[in-house]
Write a structure and sequence with these properties.
This protein is mainly α and 79 residues long. The chain contains three helices and no strands. The radius of gyration is 17 Å and the shape is elongated. The two termini are 31 Å apart.
Amino acid sequence: MSVRITVSLPDELVAAATAAVAAGEAASVSAYVASALREKTERESVADVLAEWLAEAGPLSGDESAWVAAALARSGLES
């Protein structure tokens, strides 16, 4: 199910969404925005799980931190 809403966006974000549609990278501006919101929600969910795990297990060792940084770099998820 989809719900129609109205949002205001900065000009540069509208231009990026429109360009993505024109380049065939998204079916529509709505699909582009929905994809961006989905990705943000997934990132926040992963961050919540990691924060909970760290609270229970304690901080990562240096080797573990290096492994995580390398894995995130390979995945394109690092921020």
